[in-house]
């Protein structure tokens, strides 16, 4: 009785088999079937390679939240060359809280030659070309984020020629820490001095004919300095056509947390609008000659995270590719075999 019950149970289980085996005597190979199998295996291999390349790639995920950090300081990284001698210009920051940050707190004035060497000019040309492409194709920013610390340095290379030309410009470089409120970083005539109502510059001691605010921005960024990041004003060069000329940059700063597989940094992205005009009081164009960078901070913070496809998802997609192609071609073979069997019976 036990053997009989066991046989009935096995018979019932066999009837539930959704994948019946075809006897080898009924299986017939053909050239057309081999061709279909070859195409199927080739397609599987190609799709597997493509899927593996997708698995190796990463993408950037952007998340937005309100910036609740108001107590920390904002770092401004500066490397600007002005076509005036260092004793004639002064740089500082004045924010909305009327707090003045002098250049002596972190900036260095270096005599320099304003005209670039051939190698430096080529570097600037390539940087400006990349800036124009970055403005047209915003997806390149993801490539920049993923290539930090791996790409070449974006700093101005040193001169390769030993020029005997005397310095005719001033390179102002370094960094300043300011309050996280709107402010104005500016470079104008004369050194800055404290004033009860703000600050002033000793411009009266400088000859008006020596005014020349042609300038080159080799680097300007906010927050932690991250090598490899291209900022909107890097490589900018402006030539003054008049002694009394004002250059204005209106900057909106967005706090950014960058988290990739190579780096985790608190930096800032920014957008900028440029304006320049000649100061002519008789024509109603008032102001002060110089370079003015008025910045304001966004209330939103962006978190940029580099993400990668998990292995389980890659495995499921791979199984779907192999199983889908195999079942499709196997069904085609079954249809063809049934057609051959019908022809045989007829």
TrEMBL record:
<dbReference type="InterPro" id="IPR039542">
    <property type="entry name" value="Erv_N"/>
</dbReference>
<dbReference type="GO" id="GO:0005789">
    <property type="term" value="C:endoplasmic reticulum membrane"/>
</dbReference>
<dbReference type="GO" id="GO:0033116">
    <property type="term" value="C:endoplasmic reticulum-Golgi intermediate compartment membrane"/>
</dbReference>
<keyword id="KW-0472">Membrane</keyword>
<dbReference type="Pfam" id="PF13850">
    <property type="entry name" value="ERGIC_N"/>
</dbReference>
<dbReference type="Pfam" id="PF07970">
    <property type="entry name" value="COPIIcoated_ERV"/>
</dbReference>
<comment type="similarity">
    <text>Belongs to the ERGIC family.</text>
</comment>
<dbReference type="InterPro" id="IPR045888">
    <property type="entry name" value="Erv"/>
</dbReference>
<keyword id="KW-0931">ER-Golgi transport</keyword>
<feature type="domain" description="Endoplasmic reticulum vesicle transporter C-terminal">
    <location>
        <begin position="164"/>
        <end position="328"/>
    </location>
</feature>
<keyword id="KW-1133">Transmembrane helix</keyword>
<comment type="function">
    <text>Plays a role in transport between endoplasmic reticulum and Golgi.</text>
</comment>
<keyword id="KW-0813">Transport</keyword>
<keyword id="KW-0256">Endoplasmic reticulum</keyword>
<dbReference type="GO" id="GO:0000139">
    <property type="term" value="C:Golgi membrane"/>
</dbReference>
<keyword id="KW-0812">Transmembrane</keyword>
<keyword id="KW-0333">Golgi apparatus</keyword>
<dbReference type="InterPro" id="IPR012936">
    <property type="entry name" value="Erv_C"/>
</dbReference>
<protein>
    <recommendedName>
        <fullName>Endoplasmic reticulum-Golgi intermediate compartment protein</fullName>
    </recommendedName>
</protein>
<feature type="domain" description="Endoplasmic reticulum vesicle transporter N-terminal">
    <location>
        <begin position="13"/>
        <end position="98"/>
    </location>
</feature>
<dbReference type="GO" id="GO:0006888">
    <property type="term" value="P:endoplasmic reticulum to Golgi vesicle-mediated transport"/>
</dbReference>
